[in-house]
Structure formats: structure tokens, C-alpha cells
């Protein structure tokens, strides 16, 4: 079961969100934060996958602040549009939009976690470290290839965090990964040999790394069931 709903952020902004529901009672709630391509078919499929595992999943459309309903592919023209939108993003408003999803998620009466990919991976880390300023206290956060995390690595997360990086990621230097490991030995940081940026993106042959995707998902699911379910 899935549907689109409307959310309202604290500043009055209205945004869409994709909701994927499990077949039975939810074991927990996941907020899924998009890449820089909108809540597109790939992100919706990831949400659907975690719904099959028993989670109620909500994916806020953070690009709605600039253009409602943006869903981009990974082709060159859409890549250009994606980077244009990326340049408009600000952590403060993104966190407000995620907080709108969090407030909606609270209605389920379950523990809440956050999982994000690319820009969403960085956002998931910021929810862990800054969430209290936006009335969010997640039970756990997972971030995939969180670009730019090195600059905020010393911020202190308020919940357990798991991070996944490709060892061959051309967008994220090893110094960023080591910055997190050095500042937070307690954070579960995994590096995947042979994988580059966006290795979980199964619809994009230029990025997808099947073995790393499988292992990272197994680890993420175990983590989420431990802390959220």
C-alpha cells in the first residue's frame, strides 16, 4: 500500500510526501530522505522495500520548496537540473521539512528512525546531531554516502548512527570518512571495496554495486530492527 500525502512545515510551507505502508501492523516508522533527484521511482522503490520489511515509511519531497513534484532520472539533462536544485538547498529548511514528516510519523505511536541517501545521507546525520532543535529525537539514523559529512563530523549525534561509504567514491574523500571515525568511534562506519558513489542505486548501471548494496542493506535492516522495531 502506498500513497502521496501533504505535510506542513513549521514555517507554513506545504510539501508532498510518499508513504509506503506494510501489509500488517508497522514495527516502526522510517523517514526516508531523498537524493538530489526528488522522490523519484528509485526512492519510492526503496521505501516500498522497507515497507515489505514491516516499516511504515514516509519520504518527504524536499524539492517541493522550489518546484512541486520534481522527479528526476539519472540522465545528463536531469543531472544538470538536480545539481541546480542542490545548490538551492539549505540544511535549515531541509530539516524543517524532515521535521514535518517526523511530526506526521509520531501519530503511529512507534519508534522513529531516519534513513537517507547522498544528500539525504548527510541530512540523516544532521537529524541525529541537530534534530532536537527541530523537535525530533529519532531512535536511530542511517546514512548512505553522505557527501560533505566531514565538515560536520564533530557534531554529536543524539542516537545510534550507521554510515555506509563506497571505497571508490569520487565525491567523498577518505578524509571525510576518517573524520567521522576519529570524532565518533561509537558510530558504525562501513566502507565497501569496489563500490563508488550511489552504489545502492540499482536503476543506474554506472553507479550500482550489487554486492555492496546487499551487504549494506542487511546491515541497515539489522540496525533498524534493533533500534526502531
From TrEMBL:
GO MF annotation, one: hydrolase activity
EC number: 3.1.-.-
Dienelactone hydrolase domain residues: 16-227
InterPro entries: AB_hydrolase_fold, Dienelactn_hydro, Dienelactone_hydrolase-like
Keywords: Hydrolase
Pfam families in alphabetical order: DLH
Protein name in the entry: Dienelactone hydrolase family protein
Source species taxonomy: Bacteria, Pseudomonadati, Acidobacteriota, Terriglobia, Terriglobales
